Amino acid sequence: MSAVLFDFSGTLFRIESTEAWLRAALDAAGLRLAAPDLAETARALGRAGALPGGAPPPRVPEELAEVWETRDHSSELHRAAYTGLSRQVPLPHPDLHDALYERHMEPGAWSPYPDAAEVLSALRGRGTAVGVVSNIGWDLRPVFRAHGLDRYVDTYVLSYEHGIRKPDPRLFGVACSALGVEPGRTLMVGDDRRADGGATALGCAVHFVDHLPVAQRPAGLRPVLDLVRRGAGQPWTPRTETGAREDGSP
Asked: Its Enzyme Commission number (predicted)?
C-alpha cells in the first residue's frame, strides 16, 4: 500500500468523558456545581448527545433535524448543531453552552490512542504517505501538533473545508489526490462502517477499529502495519475488527 488514510475521533484520538468536559468548562468560567449536580448534568448532556465525539443523540429534536444532517459541512452548522443539543439541558449560565463547544476543540480535551504515535512513526519510516480524513466542523490540526503527531501527517482533508462529508467518495478522492496516490493502493482506517466504508466506492481498502476508551484499546492500530506490509506485495483482503461504533461526529 502506498498510503494510509485515518479517521480522527475514535480512530487516532478519543474525546474526554462528558463529566471531564463539563468540569473543564465550569472551571474556565469560574463556576461550580456540587458533585451530585455535576454528575447528573453530565449524564443529561451525554443523553442529549451534546459532546462532539461522544455518543450520538438517540433522538434529534425536530427543530435541529436539518442542521444535524448537515453539521459537518461548515463550522457554523457544526456549532449550531451541538450547542443546540446542549441547550436541551439546563446549565448554571447560558454562556456555558458556547463554552462547552469551545472546550471540545482544545487539544487537552483529546487523548491519542496508546499506539497512535508508534504506528504513525512506523508508517513514516517505511515511506508510506499518511492522511487524516474527518467529518468535522473545526480545525483539528492544533490537536495533532499539541500531541506531537502532526509530524507524521502529510495531508488533512476535513469535511467542513470542502463542504463534503464521508461516506461521499469525493472526500477520499481529495485525500488521494493530495498525496499523489492511487485509491487502489490506499488503505482507509476508521471506526464508522458507513462513513469510513465509503472509501471502498473509490477503490480503497478499508480496515475498521473499535471506538473504545483509550485504556481499553492499547494496540488496536498495530494491525495496520501488517496490513500495509502485506498489501504492498500481494492481493489485498480487507480485514475488520469486531464491535459497533459507539460515537458520532466528528
From this structure: 3.1.3.-
User: What is 3-14+110-233's CATH superfamily?
Assistant: HAD superfamily/HAD-like (3.40.50.1000)
User: For the chain, which residues make up each domain, given as ranges?
Assistant: 3-14+110-233, 15-108
pLDDT by residue for the chain (250 residues), tens digit each? 999 999 999 999 999 999 999 999 999 999 999 999 999 999 999 999 999 999 999 999 999 999 999 999 999 999 999 999 999 999 999 999 999 999 999 999 999 999 999 999 999 999 999 999 999 999 999 999 999 999 999 999 999 999 999 999 999 999 999 999 999 999 999 999 999 999 999 999 999 999 999 999 999 999 999 999 987 433 333 444 333 333 344 4
